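The records we work with from here on pair a chain with its fold. Here is one such record, which you should read through line by line:
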Amino acid sequence: MDKFRMMFQFLQSNQESFMNGICGIMALASAQMYSAFEFSCPCIPEYNYAYGIGLLIIPPIWFFMLGFVLNNNVSMLAEEWRRPTGKRSKDPTILRYMFCSITQRSLIAPAVWVTVTLMDGKSFLCAFSINLDIERFGNSSLIKGMSEMEKMKLLAKIPCKDLFEHLEIRVAASRYIKCISQACGWMVLLMMTFTAFMIRAIRPCFSQAAFLKTKYWSHYIDIERKMFDETCKEHAKSFAKVCIHQYFENVSGEMRSFHRHRSADDSDDEEDRRSDEDKLLGIRAQDDMNKVLWNWHTCKPPLALRKDQSNGEDNNGLKKEVNGGPNGFVKGHTHDMEKKEWAVYYSKV
């Protein structure tokens, strides 16, 4: 169990690298799935186009949605977008940064699928075989006397080896459409590479301070959410332990009265109990905990920490009155400290 816990903590601490690895695995999986996929064009005019274009579009949409599902930051983004403003304002730039980061990772696997599909050319051939001009690829006597519907049925059979009898026409038409498909694949690949290059090149032209600010607070939201979940788990564990201990103490109270002196185990149990009670942070009732959780959701604390100052000599004298905002900062986020004069004497002896 400890090994799984350590592995889970490692994955949490290296979430960004882990998500990049997941995206890479999904990209390889998409290419492998396409190579293992048995392409079967229906060779029917009414279904060829739908099957070919569907194979080109539907799997990338599935991979794109799967990328969102496997990314833990989606729930964090949704919570940050839907939460009430309360005492903490919401920055739209942070939400855009998080959404763009999730989208970029989710687009890797669909881009690989579309590129591999276009390079292979089978779906393109199935979708657009009925639009070919068969007179350009061989003997035009095949279509003489045929109606328009019969021509479409004949052209729809080009992707199927067993149904189209004329091998030369089929090979020529297949090479022509696959050539166009591969050209489209290279264009898509070139456009994606050029877009990524432009994003990398243009980013330094904008304010790096704004980018660092957005990146910092997006990381803060992620870490705050994780630490809040961990704190809730620790509190729930301590709450359950203290509740169970008190239950057994109430049940066996009469039996404990016979024990005159306490053993070392009892002292250890007492120390553990005190540590668990300290972890409760003063919240010892169900209604109080529900109120804390509700307040955290509806009115998160502002991101301006208060610095408490104290002095052992005079506890009442150095507790300054807070005249500023809700976070304890006064007069430009500084506390007015009483200035003291010092006299220094030098002796020539």
Q: What stands out?
A: Residues 309-349 have pLDDT under 50 and may be disordered. The first helix runs from residue 2 to 13. Residues 20-207 form one domain. The chain is about 65% helix and 0% strand.
